[in-house]
Amino acid sequence: PFGLDMSSYEEAAGRVRELNERILESMKATGLTSLDAYEKALKSLVDFEQKVAGASQLEWVSALAQTHAGFVQDVSAAYTKAAREMLS
Predict the structure, then answer these.
(1) Whether the Cβ atoms of residue 33 and residue 25 lie closer than 8 Å to each other
(2) For 51-70, what is each residue's pLDDT tens digit?
(3) The predicted structure's pLDDT at residue 4
(4) How far apart are CA 72 and CA 53, in angstroms?
(5) CB 31 within 8 A of CB 83
(6) Is 56 within 8 Å of 68 (Cβ atoms)?
(7) What is the DSSP string of 1-61?
(8) 68 CB contacts (<8 Å, ≥6 apart)?
(9) Helical axes 6-55 vs 59-87, angle rounded to 10°
(10) CA 50, 54, 56, 58 torsion: positive or negative?
């Protein structure tokens, strides 16, 4: 139909496949960059909480801040690991 032969369809399909591959690679790179930024922001948060914990005169405040910092660190590590595996 429309005066196109089979090789024209195959060429078009090849160009579409190539474009899709480029888009996927770009999305992976963007995703990894976003994960890097997320990890950096969480590390700053955890570092701050640990400093607050160390500066507190109250033992229970220090323990609570340390526990929360550890929780955030563990959960974010699991999340980013899973996300990186999905993007690979």
Answers:
(1) no
(2) 988 888 899 888 988 898 89
(3) 62
(4) 14
(5) yes
(6) no
(7) -TT--HHHHHHHHHHHHHHHHHHHHHHHHHHHHHHHHHHHHHHHHHHHHHHHHHH-SSHHH
(8) 49
(9) 170
(10) positive
pLDDT exceeds 60 at position 1: no
Diameter over CA atoms, the chain: 83
Q: Report, as an integer, the average pLDDT of 35-60.
A: 90
Alpha carbons 86 and 51: distance in angstroms, whole number? 33
Mean pLDDT for the chain overall: 88
Strands (E), the chain: none
Confirm if 56 and 65 have CB atoms less than 8 A apart: yes
Instruction: Determine the pLDDT at residue 5.
Output: 74
